[in-house]
Amino acid sequence: MVDLLKIWFICLLMIFSRASYASTDSRIISFEFYEGTFNFEADQSIFVDAPQLASAEAAKLFYSQIAVSKYQKVLVALSDYRDKHQLNDWLFYQLIRKTSQQLSPKQDNYFRYTLYKWFFLTKSGYDARLALANDKIIFYVKNDEDISDIPFFMIGGKKYMCLNYHDYGQIDFKKEVPYPIDLPCPEARQAFSYKVTRMPDFKPEDYAEKDLKFNYKQKSYYFKVKLNPQIQSIFANYPVVDFETYFNIPLSKETYGSLIPLLRKTTEKMSQKKGIDYLMNFTRYAFLYKDDEMIFGKEKRLTPEQTLFSDFSDCDDRAALFFYLVKEIYDLPMIALLYPSHITIAVQLKKAQGTPILYKGKEYSVCEPTPQFQQLRIGQIAQKFRNEPYQVVYHYDPSSKQTE
Questions:
Q1: Tally of CB atoms within 10 A around 115
Q2: For the residues of 317-358, what is the DSSP string, one character each?
Q3: What are the distances in angstroms from CA 300 to CA 170, 305, 324, 339, 375?
Q4: Residues of the chain with CATH 3.10.620
Q5: Which of 27, 112, 369, 376 is disulfide-compatible with 318, CB 3.0–4.6 A?
Q6: Which residues contact 330 (CB under 8 A, 6 or more apart)?
Q7: How far apart are CA 278 and CA 268, in angstroms?
Q8: Tens of pLDDT along 125-146?
């Protein structure tokens, strides 16, 4: 009987010691991510060491260790959160960035932080690669879209965009030639997309109100628009994408609800022409104008919500906002006209105004959403652009739900 009690006692000790070991061998990590809280279990084995100085040997050693670690729970948590909240690739990448920050803070060890980002992006199925340019770790991903302001590399006829170019400022890849690190990941085949067609459902308490006002037909109009500062961080390093992608970035739910219904109510009793004119003047005069070069030192296209948030904006930003407002309130066919130094929008109205633009057999009236030296009416083009060539860089046709 005594022996049985001893055996039973030893078994209990083993059970408790294993439970204690398991509890100290992993920990739960949580952080706020836009519309909710992201939680994942981090097994001790996924905390892999790496030197500060980037090298191919250190990257390969890191991979050999983390590949046999218990990383699967992190990967499942990432995938489940992406599916639950319908994250586009760009937002999913932000989730991976913040997860990697928890495992290896960027400011402490940038090389290891980048290795974590690469690992979880590839294990999520994306064809991401690593290279070395002198002492710099270069992180790039397969992409089939037209991105114009960040470097890309061609590998086997496929294009790969540099994801961490902004971390180094300006890099001259002719002087600092990147050499790929051979880390084969056969499961990583998917192309990454910069299209953002859905914004997060931010918590209502995270919004602040901004007062907007403008005058139209000797009457003042006032709006209290709800805006979320996190919009700025989401798009802080967002590249200059193609116009089809750019013009279809939506507003978040609370911002939409604070503005679009009010604009609909104001324009519902107006004629189509007057309603479009009202939206055109709202986009012109509810915001101050300043060129991107003066604000950012480079070309940067603000999303409609960023334009509402910002104190200053230029023609790209206003064209995107005006397009969005017309699409949501009237859903009319539109074309975007790109001049050498300007972009504007033309709308297909019931009756064309001024000097119409003929495109594919249809007449479109220019609606200039950016303030000019002249007070332009619908159908009028600023004098300085009348003899300049232009391209139709985007065509929206709601009847077929097709875009070009």
A1: 26
A2: HHHHHHHHHHHHHT---EEEEEETTEEEEEE--SS--SSPEE
A3: 16, 14, 18, 17, 26
A4: 204-403
A5: 369
A6: 272, 275, 276
A7: 11
A8: 999 999 999 989 999 999 999 9
Task: List, for residues 299-324, the tens digit of each pLDDT value.
Answer: 788 999 999 999 888 999 999 999 99
Confidence (pTM): 0.88
Tokens, residue 131:
């290279």
User: Under a CB-based contact definition with an 8 Å cutoff, are residues 167 and 140 in contact?
Assistant: no
Spatial contact of 95 and 120, defined as CB atoms under 8 Å apart = no
- The single residue listed with the structure tokens 């005594």 is 2
Burial 185-219 (b: 16+ CB within 10 A, else e): beebebebbbbbeebbebeeeebeebebebebeee
Residue whose token pair is 């499961």: 187
As a residue count, the chain comes to 404
Q: What gap in Å lies between CA 374 and CA 370, rounded to an integer?
A: 11
Q: How far apart are CA 239 and CA 231, in angstroms?
A: 15
Q: What are phi and psi of 361, to 5 degrees?
A: 80, 5
CATH 3.10.620 fits 204-403, yes or no: yes
Could you tell me what percent of the chain has a pLDDT over 90? 77
